[in-house]
Amino acid sequence: MDAEQQQTPEEIRAKRLASLAKVQQLQQPSPATPKPPKPEGSPQSSQQNTPKPLRSSAIAMTPANIAMSSSSSSSSTSSVNTSNTPTRSPSSALKPALTFLAIEDATWLHKNIEAILQVSLNQLTPSPSIFLAALREELAEEANGGSLPQLSDKPMVDRALSARLMLHDNARPDALPLFDYLVQTWQRCVTVSRSVDSLVAKVAMLGDADTKARVDAAADVRGKVLTEVRELVVNYAGLVLMVDMADFYPQAPSVTALGPSYLAQKLLQNVSDLPREFLGEFIQRYENEDFEQFLIPILNSIATAMRGTNVTKDYQTPLN
């Protein structure tokens, strides 16, 4: 039996509430500290540079795109029309937009966020998604016979993501390190958001004013939640590297022992695994309060690696 299932519901809930309380405490803005003026273009705090809401689209509803990828790809037309390539009508090209509008915001967000986090509240969920049994039990108890809430707002996403990170299976030697999982989750969120940007741009060129207004409104609502998902993912990416949070987020001992130095290891091994935009958001999130506890171990690890490097044999591209 899974180790999580051996715990009583009260123990699981108490641990998750303690984790969420710690997260909320770390998310509180730290007291402003006087700083010398930064040159124009320098990164500011995460509160001053909150990214604009990223829009998300029905064409990226699930990894399989909920049977929409074919209609999305087929709607792109060639800039040169030949006798063998019939001209597509605007109504055909806008079919993905009409499907996008036909789905309620909460339903669209729930399906997309389940795919982004690779989790589910449905026991029959297919791989690679993971069934969050303990969270479903909590939600069913809270619903008291009613329908379960959907993953369509920040509080529910926070609970689902926390439950995913607290699974005891994360401590298995072959489990994906949580930092890597969160980076991949961030990338999936960006992919969904960018697909909507493409849809909105297409509607702006081909759609009528009413369709454009409706698509823009839906994309703004859904994009705001996706932006919050990205912020939560970046926040947890720092928490899972903190040594004092190891009790909340189980990982393999080899990963836990590294702590923040795991980030240095990623930079030294394959910097392409860490998108530059992700690193920028990570630094913005932690630069004013906790970044020193990441920076010192990272610098020490890089310095240690450099001392054992032979420049004639171990050349690596710069970490820029």
Short description:
With 320 residues, this protein is an all-alpha fold. Helices cover 56% and strands 1% of the residues.
Number of helices: 14
Strand arrangement, major sheet: 1-2
Mean pLDDT across every amino acid position: 79
Number of strands: 2
Low-confidence stretches: 1-5, 29-64, 66-83
- Beginning-to-end CA distance, first to last residue: 46 Å
State the helicity in percent bands: 55-70%
* Global structural class: mainly alpha
The string of secondary-structure elements, in order, is HHHHHHEEHHHHHHHH
Quick one: overall form?
globular
Beta-strand portion reads: under 5%
Query: Sheet with the most strands?
Result: 2 strands, parallel
Rg (CA only):
22 Å
Please give a handful of descriptors for the protein shown.
mainly alpha; single chain; 2 strands; two-stranded parallel sheet; 320 residues; disordered N terminus
Detail the topology: elements first, then pairings.
Layout: H1 3-6, H2 9-27, H3 69-74, H4 90-93, H5 95-102, H6 105-117, E1 119-120, E2 130-131, H7 133-143, H8 154-165, H9 178-206, H10 209-239, H11 253-256, H12 261-269, H13 276-286, H14 291-307
Give a description of the structure.
By secondary structure, the chain is mainly α. 56% of the residues lie in helices and 1% in strands. The protein has 14 helices and two strands, in the order ααααααββαααααααα. It has a two-stranded parallel sheet. The chain is globular and about 65 Å long. The N and C termini lie far apart (46 Å).
